[in-house]
Amino acid sequence: MERGYLLHLRPYRESSAIVQLLVDGQGRVDAVARLGSGKRTVKALLQPFQPLLFSLAGRGELKNLQQPEAYAPAVPLGGDALYAGMYLNELLIRCLSHGHAGEGLFLAYHQTLMRLALGMDQACLRYFELALLSELGTCPSLEEDALGNVVQADSHYSWRPQLGLAPDSRGDIAGHTLLALSNRELQSEQLRQAKLLLRQLLAPFVGDKPLASRELFRRRQGGNQPA
What we know:
By secondary structure, this protein is an alpha+beta fold. It is 35% helix and 23% strand. The protein has helices at 42-45, 80-95, 106-116, 122-136, 175-182, 191-206, 212-220, and strands spanning 2-12, 16-23, 27-34, 52-57, 62-70, 156-160, 164-167, 173-174.
């Protein structure tokens, strides 16, 4: 049996659905799930943030989901943390493909959900984004700039897509933010700069279409968007 989480579900034919899953050791897997009918339908089980056990059958890119069952209670997310969880799911769907499946992301995703269950935590979102970039093979060093020099805490930097982290006296990102992000020790005053950098790094994978979860954040916060 495999274990994983549902990222997204969409109806398929009369009594089935296409599900996008994050599977431990495999990353993103797309599969067809037969939803069934009656009181104990599979659809009632296939919900976001519900840890699942299941089997996958088939040799093609689109698998068949078989024997799904819950192996633990659903991760309880509410308020801003719920929107943060939705953001994680949407981010994974945008960034992961069959070519970049994210085989090593399951534990980081699970740990991030568990942290969010304790309350909204922007820092853990930044650390997950960093893990995603590492899995995609595009995470730059945060301790050296593009010239190979050690990042200085009291210096400033900017991200240049064709070059990397460049020293820049007018740059938006302080060296101490880069070092704190690298060490997973972000402080509240560093969160805005870390978010700015990570959005720039993820932009080639996310694309130009706005993330729906970010829009929900913005509306909930009256224009102040935490994720």
